Structure formats: C-alpha cells, structure tokens
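Q: Joint fold for the lines below.
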Amino acid sequence: MRPRVYLTRRLPQAAVDIVTAACETTFWDDEALPVPRETLLRAVAEVDGILTLLTDRVDVELLDAAPRLKVVANMAVGYDNVDLPALTARGVLLTNTPDVLTETTADLVWALILAASRRVVEGHRLIAAGGWSTWSPMFMVGQDVHGATLGIVGAGRIGAAVARRAVGFGMPILYHNRHPSPALEAQIRATPGAAIRYVPNLDDLLTESDVVVVMVPLTPETRGMFGAREFALMKPTSVFVNASRGPVIREAELIDALQRGRPWAAGLDVFEREPIGADHPLLTLPNVVLTPHIGSATVATRTRMAVVAATNLVAALTGQPVPNPVNDGGRLRVERRAPPV
Ligand SMILES: NC(=O)C1=CN([C@@H]2O[C@H](COP(=O)(O)OP(=O)(O)OC[C@H]3O[C@@H](n4cnc5c(N)ncnc54)[C@H](O)[C@@H]3O)[C@@H](O)[C@H]2O)C=CC1
Ligand SMILES: O=C(O)C(=O)CO
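A: Joint structure:
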C-alpha cells in the first residue's frame, strides 16, 4: 500500500510531483495562508508523513492526532516550530532543508546591512514624501560598510556565506560560535589581506564590531540572547542585523535601544511574533529596515526547498536513504551526515 501524506500548503509543482508519484497525497490547497489548526489536526489522523512549513506548530497535540506518523519533513532549515524531543520520543523522524537556501539568505542579510547602513529605505521614503530639497554636505549621511568590522554571531552555513561576501568589502571579520571553525578561517584567509578571528566572548564581539549579524538557530540557549545589556555594549555607530529568528532578540529592548541610538540602525527579517502589522512600534523608527521573513525567498530557492522537503518525505517513507535527517527517526532508515560547521 502506498504511504499516505499531508502537505500543509500548496507547493511548487515540481515538489508535488515528487510526492504524488510515491504517496497518496492530500494537501491544504492555499499558497498564501496556513492551514487552520483544527483542519490540520483532522487531516493528519491517518497519515504516515507530513510536509510542514515554519508556520505550522508540530507539537504533542499534533502527534496525538497522528498516531501513524513516521516523518515530518519541514520546508525550512530552522525547526524551532517543531517539538523535537517529543518527535524523537515517539520515533518520528524530522527532516529539514539546509544548504539549498544558504547563499540566498546571505544575500538578503547583505541587503539589510547595506540598506540599514546607507539609509536606503529612509531615503526612498523621503523622496516619496516630497522631502528632498537639495544636495547638502551632511544630508542623509550613513555609516561606511567597506572596511568596517563585521561581527557574526552564529557562523554556521549562512553566517559563513555572509562572511565570504564581506571579504569583497574589505571587512575584518569576527565570529562568535559555540566552537571555532578552522574550515571557515581557512576559506577567508585564502584571500590575501582578508582577516577573521574567533571571539569566544560575545560581549567582546559586540564591543568591537561595526556591523553585527545574528544567524544562530532559535534554541532554549539563544532565546532572548540579545537585550538591553547587549545593545548597550555596541558602538553608537553600529548596525545590527537579525535574519535568524525573532525571539533571539528581546524586541521591546531593541526598540528602546534604537530610540537611544545604540545600535545606530537595524535591519530585521524576523520578528518575535510574525506577521507584524502596520501598527508595529518598529515602524515608528526611522533607523530600521524591515523585511517580512524573506531570507530564502527567491523563486529558485523556494522551489529547491520544496523539492528537498518532498524528497526527504518520500525517501523516509519508501525505505531510501534520507538526505537531511535532524533526528534518528526510530524505525526509518536515515543516512548520517557530517554535522554543520
Ligand atoms: N530569515 C530567513 O528567511 C532564514 C532564517 N534562517 C535561520 O538561520 C538559522 C541558521 O541557519 P544555518 O546557518 O543553516 O544553520 P547552522 O546550524 O549551519 O548555523 C548555526 C550556527 O549557530 C551556532 N550556534 C548555535 N547556538 C549558538 C549559541 N548559543 N551561541 C553561539 N553560536 C551558536 C552553531 O554553532 C552554528 O555554527 C536557522 O536555524 C534559521 O533559524 C535560515 C534560513 C532562512
Ligand atoms: O529555512 C528557514 O529556517 C527559514 O526561515 C525560511 O527559509
């Protein structure tokens, strides 16, 4: 009998084709809006696998509603929407979509660095409001990006891709991780003149950096990692960028810090509670650039992520090696890979 699966959103056709070729498939037929919780809980009653998005909460309630469940294929590299210990305790495999979104997300981080440092959105708004009267020496002056010191908190796959781009801007790089990464250091130092240094103490990185980029996963350790104390350590000219997960930052404290001018500006792709509305206090600040969680949002990358998630789902349910297992997944066959940097 073919395995039964549920897809929690309408996906690119290439991914749907992979799943329907191997599985009896039902799905929430909407591209824009998440499946309502009650519908999801009913839909998973008989399924062997589900393909989820980061907007779907996968918890004990859902596991209870899905007694046959063997695999959850999350279409994201981050999986903080999933109660991993609960899945593992029941022998349910979790898969994610690393690597395919790394470069695209690093590009967006750079868009935020540049836009926040050089007041790109503020300048656009000013012109649109008819506020541009003339060129003057200190009109709309920002902070230099080239040559500035870049501090990366969480220099894994995406953080490393952000670092590689910084070499072209002549930026000395500091990084704070759980462990030093000789592979990343060798990559950066392969370019003559490029500099990178591991900083074991986060406070030191914050004090020394001109641009701080946060790319850690959301875990119990990283939740609330940045608050008033950390922002007060940053330079009054510094730019802060978060494209990891909103709850890594204590948002109210960031707003307060931005109002005080330290950091000087921020670029944010992720928020404590998503989506945020037009009445969000961050939008009252001139020194922020906000994007709606679009780090991986290019046609090519979102299609690849959907295909990778579909491939993981089908592989798990048809006895093939699973490309991107996060946990051990009980009875399913998974292929162990080297851990990320
Ligand atoms: N804005 C967006 O659209 C996107 C956001 N993301 C977010 O970015 C995160 C990172 O993705 P990858 O780079 O692929 O993951 P990764 O696992 O390769 O990198 C994460 C890095 O953070 C480090 N880290 C973890 N806990 C830490 C701690 N307490 N202190 C210091 N360092 C710590 C790890 O050692 C690792 O080097 C994802 O988990 C996801 O939440 C990912 C893709 C797109
Ligand atoms: O993959 C992730 O973790 C995202 O946030 C979206 O690409």
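Q: Anything notable?
A: Residues 4-100+299-332 form a domain with the Rossmann fold fold (CATH 3.40.50.720). The longest strand covers residues 4-7.
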